Each structure stands twice: as C-alpha cells, then as structure tokens.
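How a chain folds remains the central question behind the approach discussed here. No coordinates are needed to read the tokens, only the vocabulary itself. For completeness, the protein is quoted in full, as a sequence line and a line of structure tokens:
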Amino acid sequence: MRKNSPLLAIIAVLFLQSSVTAESVFQKPFKEYKLESGHKGGRLVIPATSDPKSFNPIVANETSTTQITSLIFEGLTRTHPLTLEVVPNLAKSWETEDGKVWIFYLREDVFFNDGEKFKADDVVFTFNELIYNSDIPTSSRDIFTIEGKKITVERVDDYTVKFTLPCVFAPFLRALSHEILPRHKYHKIAKDKKFTFSMGLDSKLKDIVGTGPYCLKQYLPGERVVFAPNPYYWKKDENQTQLPYLQEIIYIILQNSDTALLKFLDREIDYYSLRSQDLAILGPRCKKDLFTIYNAGPSFGSNFLVFNQNNLENPRTKKPYVSPYKLKWFGNIKFRKAIAHAINKDKIIKIVMNDLGVRQFSSVSPANKFFYTEDVKKHKFSPDKAKQLLAEIGFGDRDQDGTLEDSQGKKLELNFFTNADNTQRVQIATLVKKDLEDIGMKISFLPLDFNNLVSKLTATFDWELIMIGLTGGIEPYFGKNVWSYKGNLHMWNPTKKAIMPFEQEIEDIFNLGAKTIDESKRKELFFTWQKIVARELPLIYTAIPYSLYAIRDKFANLYPTVYGGAFGELEWIYIRGGKHE
C-alpha cells in the first residue's frame, strides 16, 4: 500500500487550519464609517507586483500604472468607496436642466503640486487636447464618445466649465472622475505631438504634475516608488489641518505574492492582499503580530481566458497574426463552448481559493449590486460535453497520441500565457492547462512579466490563448473600451471591425445604455449584454476570489471596502498614538 506523502499531510493540515480560523480572523465589511481628525507623520509601505509602464494616466491600460497615478491625479467627481454614490471633488457643484447641457462650478482653492492654480482651462485642455486628440491612444476616448460624437467642453470663466453632450449620457457624472491634467505643463507637449510618449519612467519627477494628495519623490526601477505629500493639497480636516496625514507612501516592487507575504510577515510592508491559502499562515498570527484581516466580499475583478481572433496580417512579417486554421477554431462557438465546459471552476475555488470564492459566468461580478444578473447561460463543468462539442466540429485523435487533430490533421496545440507576478492567476492557469489537456489539447504554458503580457495583448498580438483579468467597477459603460469592437482593449478582436454579429449587438447596447436615464431600463440593457457574453463566450470566465486584506493595526481612519480597496480614502489615514514607524 502506498504511504501518504508528508507534503500532502502538511497541506491537509493547513487547509483545515485555515478553514477553522477564517471566520474568527475576518473583520466583516463596513456598513458605515466616520473619518476623524488625525495628525501628520509616518509612512505606509505597500507592495506592487511590477514597475509602472509610465506615469501617464491618459494612455495607461494597466493597473501597474494606474495604482501609481491615482495618488497624483484627480477628477471633477469621485465615487464614495462605501456608499458608491457620486460626490463632488475638484468640482464643488453642478447643475443641468435637460441632461445635455451641464454647468460645473470648480473649487477655487485647488493647486497643482507645482504651485499653479487649477482652473477651467485645465479641464478644457484635458478633454479637447488629450482625450479627443486622435494622435493619443487613450481608452478614455471610447467612454467620452457617444454614438460617434464628442462632448463639447467650454470655459465659461476661470472656475466654471460648460459641457454640452450630443445626447443624454447616463453615466456622465461618474465618468467625470477622470483625471484632470494641467494645461500649463502639457499643452506644448501635446501640440508638438509628443504627449503619448511623455511622462515616461525616465521623466524628471517634478514634471509629473497633478492635484492629488501625493507627488512623486523617488523612483528606483525594479525596487520602489516613493511619494511625498502634495504641499499644495486642497483638502483639510475640521481643525484646518492640511491633508494628507501620512508623510510618505512607498510602493515596494515585489515580483510575486510569495515574496510579498514574506515581507509582510517580516514587518517590512504594512499591507498584503491575501490569497485564500495564506489564511493558514496569517490567521493564527493576527493578534501576536498586530494586524487584522478584512474580508470585503467577492471582488469586482475577474480571471478569464481569451482567444486571439485577430484576422489581420502583421505588417512587419507579412504573415497573419494567427494561423488561419487556428483562427477558424477560435471563431467557432462550439470550440469556445467546449473550452468553457472543460474548466472545473469548483476545483479552482477549492484548491486555489480555499473555498473563498465564487464561480463566474457573467461579465459582471456579483459585487456589483447595481448591474449584476445571475440569469445567464452557465456552461457547467463537463469534460464529456467538451469532447462531444469538439468531435462535432471535426476534432479527433487520429494518430492515437493523446492529442486531438482537426479535420485537416492539424494538432490541437496552443501557446498559453498569463502574468507571472500574480501567483493565484498562475495557479488557476495551471489547473486550466490540466483541464484542457484532459480533453485532448496540448498546451504550452508560459507565465510572463505583466507589462510584457499587456504588450502582447495591445501591441504585438503574438499570442493564441491568454488568461488575464479586468479590475471591474460599478458602471458597465466604462468597460466600453473592452466591449466595443472599436475599443482599444477589445482584446480578442483588435481590428476595429465587428467580425461576429454579437459584437454589433453589444455595440448597440452600450450606445443605448449611455443615453438611457431610466434605471430599470438601463439594467435590462446591461442584463442583455451579460447574457450575450455568457452565450457567445468571447471571454471565458473562471472564478472570483473574495477581497481579503491584511493590514497593520497601527492605522486609523481605515475602512477597507471591495470597491475602494484597502485604502479607500488614503489622504485621511494616520498612525495611531503618534508612533511613526
């Protein structure tokens, strides 16, 4: 009889331990909170999985950049991290009579971090010379283009801006959380057609100018990004103390979660985004090591598979981006259904997420209480069904080597990429690889640096199958850059032309959803979109983990939420008792 492996025994103990301690260590989601006055001093050290690609928020397509720029730049509005309501920010108020013409009244006490005043000209510049500049590849243009028409943005006076919409635009107020950039700093660069490549990692840090609570202090490639308070920041507490309280924010660049976990245990970082399997290690140490684990519920993000259906030719090599016979596979709905049936989502949740996750079938996370519907087609785990579908479109193991061939004798072989820095995603991809091999596919799996992966998706197009994720959010329309076939992140088909009828259906839904004010009708539109995606499977979803945060107990004004993350209102966070570590 085969003896049990010591390693398996250890794993079993760890899973048991984590399941026992999970409920006892979790801080439940907050239903309300009150920000109190604090004091200045101290630092917060946070892990980042990779270097940013740039410091340019206008052209950013990846979280490695936006997590950095979100501290430097602000919008006219913001979404409250707990209530999810749209609230004033750089704009103190607004008004409209018909939903088409909007007047925004700007705060008069706002300065950029170089000391220049924020005014209406900066808003007009951001829209007219950056967002609507066809020379600049920005996903923001997809959001602010309504049925092919731009929004007219005009200066009324120094602190008043007029927006004239081509039609009623339902998500308009929420969209105005978009970053505003200073005209005095970037106008000439944009005029000289150099903006796309400006604000790079080799820029002088003083040239990255915004109104946000922090500004760049130091950048050491591959090591860290350091922030200092914006000396001109406009927010103050009730005692008229200028925010932010924390005097230094440090993002330590750590290539994977395992390294970040060790750094957290060694108290070198103050925050760690847990994988569920980490509970076995962290759960018993909460009280001793003075940290709390917060469970904010299912995340807004996703993990999904996508096949490259780019039917264009590479202008450099004069060869198709995707082999024609593989393009035929990927474009066949029965092929995509077979893949969906092959994925064991329950196994992913059990093994990778330690039962702290939910299966995903819809393009919207259940965390989105406004727009999520579970009434979509669910391609449940069934390897037999997957094999049947593949057989129906001509696949069979003709040479009995364990790998299927199509009707032309082409092997069902694929390259498969994901981002190496996300160890949970690598684990999911490893299980998916096994699932696909179980139905007769041959998979060459290679984890890549995140920025390299994004480059494949958006620039070089040299890939066949990728697992990646989207951060998600409240308003479905803000994902138009993904779901519109004209969008910059329409990853399975970057040709800017609809190659399948459902792509036009989705285009029409998003255009109509943009100008439908009635909330119930908007929900029905976006429910239909979710049903189309679940039926047609341009993206094949896996599972959504719970949002778990481990944070040192030394911080006050800390209210982690699924939408706002661990530090939803970072400028208000301070260190308890004046202990500046």
Observations:
- The chain has three domains: 39-52+201-297+547-578, 63-197, 304-544.
- The domain at 304-544 is CATH 3.10.105.10 (Dipeptide-binding Protein; domain 3).
- The mean pLDDT is 92.
- DSSP finds 18 helices and 26 strands in the chain.
